[in-house]
Amino acid sequence: MDGFPSLPADSSSSTYTSQSAYRAEGEVFPPVGGPVPVPEFAPGEAGAERSGSSGSSGGKRRSLDLFTAPGTYLLVGINCAVFLWMVMHGVSAQSPTSDDLVHFGATNVRLMLLHGQWYRLLTAIFVHVGWIHLATNMWCLWNLGLLGEPLLGPYGLIAVYVLTGAAGNLLSMAVNVFLRDYNAVGAGASGAVFGIAGILIVLLSNKRLPIPWSELQRLRRSVIQFAVLNLIIGGATMIPGLQVVRIDNMAHVGGFLSGLGLGVPLVPRMTAGRQRYLARQKLTFVGAALLLSLFGYWIANLG
């Protein structure tokens, strides 16, 4: 990705001074190990054995059937639609300007603190800094979404995407407030992608799932490798001389940690029956939204 324009030098609500360029959340690499089989079971349905599959690997190959993973394809579709909408309105598909990103919903500390535009915590997770940024994030979202949706359900996956994406943006915002960088602009789905990876690492540790333990270990190892590799790449860009692209590492870390946290209360109910599992999901997600609101309130008072 090239072209990191600075924000115009103006202190008004529509333009902002900045020595730094916009901060894309960065390209992330998909899970390693080739195609990942998707577990065939409904969330919370305990002990369901698949007939005639005792000798199989416990899964099926991914396909483009939209009805098998509607949540994943909906999220990918929304991200792509937003990008096309931006391009149709004159935004560069290769290197959009900071003003372009802000106009279409990217995060900006000054606007969020001084003008109350907190909705940007959510809109920013559907805005991308060029087609390469979009393509890499959507590839990872598709890989992880097809693995995670059978464990979470479509609504659960969407909730995790939104909550962890917002959590990543909040942590990034808090760091920018501490650093007094009120003009940083952030956009991208990678914080939410890391959130999905985080919750998968926790959910795939449940030995009571009706999937061979060796297969669960393989899937979990693949997701861990994905997360570690991309966190290392993101951290490396902070080293002087290696900053090829600007990556919002705090958004990645915030999304990942919140994903881990969301998974912990869900594990005990995964095999307790569908209704109990879905009830635990609702309680967990509502609680997480409340905690994020309190975190945002604390950040607002810092500013």
Can you give keywords for this protein?
about 300 residues, mainly alpha, Rhomboid-like fold, three-stranded mixed sheet, 3 strands, globular, disordered N terminus
Task: Provide an overview of this structure.
With 303 residues, this protein is mainly alpha-helical. It has one domain: Rhomboid-like fold, CATH 1.20.1540.10. Helices cover 54% and strands 2% of the residues. The protein is built from ten helices and three strands; from the N terminus they run E-H-H-E-H-H-H-H-E-H-H-H-H. The chain has a three-stranded mixed β-sheet with strand order 1-3-2. Helix 5 packs across helix 6 (154-178).
Quick structural overview:
By secondary structure, this protein is an all-alpha fold.
The assigned structural class equals mainly alpha
- Helix residue percentage: 40-55%
How many helix segments? 10
Q: What is the fold named in CATH at topology level?
A: Rhomboid-like fold
Instruction: Supply the number of structural domains.
Output: 1
Tell me the Rg in angstroms.
Answer: 20 Å
